[in-house]
């Protein structure tokens, strides 16, 4: 009987030794996974920083742009910058010799709209940021801009992500407009509301 007990104890010790080895391997794997997790978190933070920098660079590349909506198709007749400068001079009563320079003014890319759809916007790229700001200021001062019976809308050029971030404020802005409160959207996506002044 004693030899049977000793044999059983030997088997238990062998099993225990095997389990101890397995537990050691599992602890090593868990430790390795935790180290990898820290690496992944650091990579994720770097990726988020890179995404913010990329969005900032894209917004900088759009810095001199204005999107013009509401201009019927074909009005620019293959001379977008010249036509747009004449349109701005006419709409805002600017002097003929104005120094504003528009580099390019193509229609936005996309499929051709149908006859009952809104025409694609014009994306005007100004040579100088100050000219773009002056046009946006003139638009704000005018309130509504009309040209040949069409209501024109001017928007600053922004990246798609930033436009989506700003669009999230739309329901709130509608409520404030219903209360006759003024609001301003500050860069990048901050809503400022003016009450009584």
UniProtKB/TrEMBL annotation:
<feature type="coiled-coil region">
    <location>
        <begin position="9"/>
        <end position="36"/>
    </location>
</feature>
<dbReference type="InterPro" id="IPR004244">
    <property type="entry name" value="Transposase_22"/>
</dbReference>
<keyword id="KW-0175">Coiled coil</keyword>
<protein>
    <recommendedName>
        <fullName>L1 transposable element RRM domain-containing protein</fullName>
    </recommendedName>
</protein>
